[in-house]
Amino acid sequence: MMSRQELKVNISETKRSYPIIIANNISSQIGSLISDCYRGNKVLLLSDANVSGLYGAGIVSSLEKAGYQVLEYIIPAGEKSKSYHYLRKGYDLLVDNNFNRDNLIIALGGGVVGDLAGFLAATFMRGIPFVQLPTSLLAQVDSSVGGKTAINHPAGKNMIGAFYQPEMVVIDPVFLKTLVPREFKTGMAEIIKHGLIADQGLADYLFERSKNVFKLEKDELSHIIYRSCQIKAAIVMEDEKEKGKRALLNYGHTIGHALEAVTAYKKYNHGEAVAIGMLGAVRLANSLGLLEKSDLQFTEELIRLYDLPLGHQEDPEAIFTALFRDKKVKNDSLRWVLIDRIGNAFIREGIDHSLIKRILEGLLC
Ligand SMILES: NC(=O)c1ccc[n+]([C@@H]2O[C@H](COP(=O)([O-])OP(=O)(O)OC[C@H]3O[C@@H](n4cnc5c(N)ncnc54)[C@H](O)[C@@H]3O)[C@@H](O)[C@H]2O)c1
Ligand SMILES: O=C(O)C(=O)C[C@@H](O)[C@H](O)[C@H](O)COP(=O)(O)O
Ligand SMILES: [Zn+2]
Can you give the pTM of this predicted structure? Predict the structure, then answer.
């Protein structure tokens, strides 16, 4: 990893901007870093049991050295914790400890912790500040940036949430050394998504360098984290609230979220479901005559190279029904994010339902 890199996310609607800081070992300075954006004395450190066991003490120590009083909120690891139950427990903790709008929440963890902490921050007293300190690859390249915060509903992913931007995103790639391979690969799915929708150069780079990426080579890791944050930040700056272009970041998520919901968030992790969804989307585009076979094959090979799943074992009818809970649905009509070449995405609606069902059946394996 090169020395410190920094990006700015400018949100024009609210005239706010926040930094994304990327550097090895930067998390050890979290206490002094947050003093740039936070004048209060108390911090709620929200984390999950795995991450807290590995990194909680170090982060608490950095915060305490900088003079902050730290209250820890540790949730069980896994998607099931992105729920009303753990949100409610968070509110109770904040109330019992007299937190108010002058206080700060820090999300130390993967996307589950970040989405839950962000929604807690967005809704407690109509909004208190929060900082993202992402520890999974997925969170470092996607979920910590852009301010989508949410909990799940049994019927659908992220059904209850808010757009609420953090004060700062602090990315320390050193955290990734302890990530298990399955969770590393899930993050790769969102990076692949960024290449497919916006940057052929990134997609080619991933194709050529998969071996180095898996070995956590510093240069490769640095490049794909920085480029992913840059691609995502640029889209969010244009369209914070998903009135248009931001929907492209949802590539692969129409089928992906449906798969997660029909399996009660237990079987596929988010990136795996998105990988299957991206396969469905390229096959759909190819069947509609919008995408060359060579680009379809390139995408399949890329997903295979990163050892992501190439199909599902669920009931296609159940997935089809769940598709209609997608947030992109308008007037009961599904809106698909498709690509017509590697690096260029667009929205298409009015696709024949029988073709969609055939695609879902074709993904059975
Ligand atoms: N808000 C957004 O824009 C956005 C974008 C993409 C995904 N998401 C959401 O993010 C969630 C998925 O995030 P995720 O893949 O990070 O899942 P996660 O938060 O469940 O983390 C995955 C696993 O890795 C562990 N972990 C995290 N960091 C670790 C580390 N450094 N070392 C060892 N273990 C570590 C966690 O404890 C967990 O078991 C989903 O709920 C998805 O919907 C949100
Ligand atoms: O930031 C976005 O916009 C995205 O769509 C990024 C996705 O990777 C992410 O999974 C997001 O949480 C999905 O949002 P949703 O609005 O479909 O729930
Ligand atoms: Zn996603």
Answer: 0.98
Domain 181-362 has CATH 3.40.50.1010: no
Task: Please state, in angstroms and rounded to a whole number, the distance separating the CA atoms of residues 91 and 348.
Answer: 40
Report which secondary-structure segment, H or E, holds 11.
strand 5-11
Hey, what CATH topology would domain 5-177 get?
Answer: Rossmann fold (3.40.50)
Whole-number Å distance, alpha carbon 190 to ligand 3 midpoint, is 6
For residue 131, give every residue at least 6 positions away whose Cβ sits within 8 Å of its Cβ, in sequence order, or none: 34, 37, 38, 104, 105, 106, 107, 166, 167, 168, 169, 170
Active site residue 148: yes
Domain residue extents for the chain? 5-177, 181-362
Query: So what's the ipTM on this one?
Result: 0.99
Cα dihedral angle (338, 344, 346, 351), rounded to 10 degrees? -30
Tokens coding 206: 């991933």
Binned at pLDDT 50, 70 and 90, residue 154 comes out as confident
Residue nearest to atom 2 of ligand 2 (CA): 249
